[in-house]
Automatic annotation (TrEMBL):
NCBIfam families: FtsE. Belongs to the ABC transporter superfamily. It comes from Zhenpiania hominis. It is a peripheral membrane protein. Residues 2-236 form the ABC transporter domain. GO terms for biological process: cell division. InterPro entries: AAA+_ATPase, ABC_transporter-like_ATP-bd, ABC_transporter-like_CS, ABC_transpr_LolD-like, Cell_div_FtsE, P-loop_NTPase. The keyword rRNA-binding does not apply. The gene is ftsE. One of its GO terms (cellular component) is plasma membrane. This is Cell division ATP-binding protein FtsE.
Length: 255
């Protein structure tokens, strides 16, 4: 679904990505984590062909986007839904109109828009707010509208760029449940985040970038240290169980 093959992107004096190879399959839910300046935004912008790679190939849904002409880019961006930390709703449009607008710009039929927008609003749990304006909604509700809008053209991939960054923990968790639901319905999700507690709770694949390189790629917790700590707990538990079953408390076995 998303394949980076030896991708390098250097800015004038900074490293964006450095020889990154990664594969994200259809239906996965992946967290992209790393400190500020690690290369996460560069990864997303390369995927959407907002910037060009210096080296390597990037495939999105089987197509090599590094070879795309300008004419092919709008379709790529339509095939990938995106949600941002700051929602980016149109303030003068209602909830219904915000979602409908995403469908109008791809010339969707009015009849289909009228049918699908309420379904999308139901999906994200704000079916009763269609006539409200963004300023009349809570932050969590605004993010729900943004998710509905991102899903309006039925993208196969949804990028969520710090979607919980402006939300309190409880609301953030509600948004995660919506993303989980969307993922269960078949959309591949790539979520960029610094929210350690969320990553730890979700127990999904975590790709960690630092200084433009992938330093970790596995299922589980946010940080390498946490992963190690968990491993130690598991090792201690295993050792403890072995000692109990062999009746030898206090001695480690190496078998
Ligand atoms: N347009 C640009 N021109 C020059 N350097 C850039 C540009 N965009 C990003 N960089 C640099 O590339 C590196 C990676 O930046 P990137 O924005 O991808 O990091 P990030 O992981 O998304 O960070 P954050 O979590 O703060 O958003 C950083 O050193 C950054 O300063």
């Amino acid at each position: 679904m998303i394949v980076f093959d030896h991708v390098t992107k250097h800015y004038k004096t900074n490293i964006g990505l450095d020889d990154v190879s990664i594969r994200i399959d259809r239906g996965e839910f992946v967290f992209l984590v790393g400190p500020s300046g690690a290369g996460k935004t560069t990864f997303v912008r390369l995927m959407l062909k907002e910037i060009d790679a210096d080296k390597g190939t990037i495939k999105v849904r089987g197509e090599d986007v590094t070879r795309f002409s300008n004419r092919q880019i709008p379709k790529l961006r339509r095939d990938v839904g995106i949600v941002f930390q700051d929602f980016r709703l149109l303030p003068k449009k209602t909830v219904f109109e915000n979602v409908a607008f995403a469908m109008e710009i791809v010339h969707q039929k009015r009849k289909i828009i009228k049918r699908q927008v309420p379904q999308l609003l139901e999906l994200v749990g704000i079916g009763t707010k269609a006539k409200k304006y963004p300023s009349e909604l809570s932050a969590g509700e605004q993010q729900r509208v943004a998710i509905a809008r991102a899903m309006a053209n039925n993208p196969k991939i949804l990028i969520a760029d710090e979607p919980t960054g402006n939300l309190d923990p409880e609301t953030a968790w509600e948004i995660m449940q919506i993303l989980e639901l969307i993922n269960q319905r078949g959309t591949t999700i790539l979520m960029v985040t610094h929210a350690k507690d969320i990553v730890d709770k979700m127990n999904k694949r975590v790709i960690a970038i630092e200084k433009g390189r992938i330093i970790r790629d596995d299922i589980g917790t946010y940080g390498f240290e946490e992963a190690l700590a968990n491993m130690e707990v598991t090792m201690d538990t295993l050792q403890h169980r072995r000692q109990l079953s062999s009746g030898k408390r206090g001695t480690a076995s190496n078998d």
